[in-house]
């Protein structure tokens, strides 16, 4: 199999994982009593209760195959933000979701992304790149949870979405924990700018305990992926 085929397979696999995250985010957390016809998030305001995701509805479920094709297509946009190494073994994701009765507007997302230092690029999504070394690939990226995940700048003024997804694909161009320390504050800032809420990968409000757990996981990941020490030549 040619190198190009392997690259396309790697990109397809990344797309499938992101699609799985979109599906999990879109899936109702409890059996519905009836069909919801709005994109209104359902939320329990008690301190310890989880935030349920916006009801994306049938549109997201029906779009999985189209999303797969969109994310698998390597020529969909500029090369800015394309991963140098297509292989990966872990994805860490967060979501910024609209509040009850609201949606996130495309133009507002673009403005907020620019204010937080993200750039529009590969796959027509936003990326955070390394200062002074953008060619190293994205530290993390941001997409819409609605099909196909990308942002069409020609129609951005008409775009609305219940939430956006931030995903850190490892290995990243910097250590995993460092990448998280760059992503988490930007996600929080995006939520402030959009008057939205931050959810973890389980669709619960992101709290200090969960943040500490993610940091522990990424410290362990970095330890497992440390370069082995150089072996000194034997002394004769």
Automatic annotation (TrEMBL):
Residues 37-46 have a biased composition (Basic and acidic residues). The keyword Transcription does not apply. It is a single-pass type I membrane protein. One of its GO terms (biological process) is division septum assembly. The keyword Cell inner membrane applies. Residues 88-218 form the ZipA C-terminal FtsZ-binding domain. The chain crosses the membrane at residues 6-26. InterPro entries: Cell_div_ZipA, ZipA_FtsZ-bd_C, ZipA_FtsZ-bd_C_sf. It comes from the Bacteria. SUPFAM superfamilies: Cell-division protein ZipA, C-terminal domain. Keywords: Cell cycle, Cell division, Cell inner membrane, Cell membrane, Membrane, Transmembrane, Transmembrane helix. Essential cell division protein that stabilizes the FtsZ protofilaments by cross-linking them and that serves as a cytoplasmic membrane anchor for the Z ring. Also required for the recruitment to the septal ring of downstream cell division proteins. Belongs to the ZipA family. NCBIfam families: septum_zipA. This is Cell division protein ZipA. It comes from Stenotrophomonas koreensis.
């Amino acid at each position: 199999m040619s190198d190009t085929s392997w690259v396309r397979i790697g990109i397809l696999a990344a797309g499938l994982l992101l699609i799985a995250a979109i599906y999990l985010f879109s899936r109702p957390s409890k059996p519905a009593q009836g069909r919801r016809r709005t994109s209104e998030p359902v939320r329990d305001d008690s301190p310890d209760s989880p935030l349920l995701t916006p009801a994306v509805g049938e549109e997201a479920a029906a779009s999985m195959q189209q999303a797969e094709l969109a994310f698998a297509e390597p020529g969909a946009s500029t090369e800015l933000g394309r991963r140098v190494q297509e292989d990966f073994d872990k994805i860490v994701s967060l979501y910024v979701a609209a509040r009850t009765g609201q949606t996130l507007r495309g133009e507002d997302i673009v403005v907020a992304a620019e204010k937080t230092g993200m750039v529009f690029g590969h796959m027509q999504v936003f990326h955070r790149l390394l200062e002074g070394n953008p060619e190293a690939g994205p530290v993390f990226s941001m997409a819409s949870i609605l099909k196909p995940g990308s942002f069409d700048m020609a129609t951005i003024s008409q775009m609305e979405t219940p939430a956006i997804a931030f995903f850190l694909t490892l290995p990243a161009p910097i250590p995993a924990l460092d990448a998280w320390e760059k992503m988490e504050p930007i996600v929080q800032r995006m939520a402030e700018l959009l008057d939205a809420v931050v959810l973890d990968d389980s669709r619960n409000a992101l709290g200090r305990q969960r943040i500490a757990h993610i940091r522990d996981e990424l410290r362990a990941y970095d330890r497992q992926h440390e370069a082995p020490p150089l072996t000194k030549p034997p002394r004769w």
